[in-house]
Amino acid sequence: MLLILLYIILYFFSAYDLLPAQEAQTINYTWALMFAYLSVLFLKQKLTKGDVLAGIICYFGVLIISTKGNPFSLDFSDLFGIILALISTVLWALYWIINTNSKADATVGLFSNFLVGTILIGLYVVFVGGINLPNLQATFGVIYVGFFEMGITFVFWLKAVILTPSVSKISNLIFLSPFLSLVFIYFFVGEEILLSTIVALFLIISGLVIQQKWK
Asked: Is residue 205 classed as helix, strand or coil in its secondary structure?
């Protein structure tokens, strides 16, 4: 159910429609830090000074990107979109934390989650607006997202979460990809990458490096 709620927030509530892609994806990457924080509550792991310092730096980066480089003005580009994106980080973290305590096979568990989610979302679509077949370009996009973002990568990540002795360590590894994401956003989406985005992303990654090295 958390996974379904997550994608309702991201898509049906239009978190990505309300924000530029570079802002949404950068904020979304902070779910790894939220993962480390919530693991203290739910997995009884210890919170270090490095975790606290990383949080200050990372969320200051979120403030910079949300205000397009004017953090002290508190003039947010779209406050509602930012709130939705931040809520999604909490749901992502909770979803993976809950799955760490699951005794079921990781692949079977993910398949069951997506099977139930597909049925419920399908019913939602039917009752709300009906089913409209996408064009060829959208179809390829759906296949890509389903196979890579929602498929084998989920299996690999859940296996890693179950095997690791420290959630905060592996949660930092996802920050290897954000700069590549900016390249894709520039070339495929056509957004001009702002200096404030690069600065914010640098702060977020720096905070997570500090979190990792502190230990």
From this structure: helix
